[in-house]
Amino acid sequence: MTDDATTAAAATDTLGYEQARDELIEVVRRLEAGGTTLEESLALWERGEELAKVCRRWLEGARARLDEALARPGKDQQDDAG
After folding, report:
1. What is the dihedral of CA 54, 60, 62, 68, to 10 degrees?
2. Cα separation of 35 and 72, whole Å?
3. How far apart are CA 61 and CA 27, in angstroms?
4. What average pLDDT does the segment 30-35 reach?
5. In this structure, what is the dihedral angle of CA atoms 52, 55, 61, 65, given to the nearest 10 degrees?
6. So what's the pLDDT on residue 40?
7. Is residue 27 a contact partner of residue 44, using CB atoms and an 8 Å limit?
8. Of 9, 23, 33, 52, which is the most buried if we count CB atoms within 10 A?
9. Beta-carbon neighbour count of residue 32 at 10 Å?
10. SS3 content of the chain, % helix, strand, coil (to 5)
11. pLDDT digits (tens, 9 = 90+) for 45-73
């Protein structure tokens, strides 16, 4: 991996979900609009793939946290039973 690619990957990993989603929307908009060179289109596609992975990791993490919270009996459930 080149230094630029390593830096870009590290920057992508620090993005929050909303930031990654918003940038992904912009990437898709630019690809759909056309008018870019093949090289630019490929770079946009690769960036979009990175951003989609970031979004997926955030969503999977949120799902895991929800599943964990639902799996353990909470204080509210114990209060209702007693």
Report:
1. -150
2. 53
3. 24
4. 97
5. -140
6. 98
7. yes
8. 23
9. 7
10. 85, 0, 15
11. 999 999 999 999 999 999 999 999 999 88
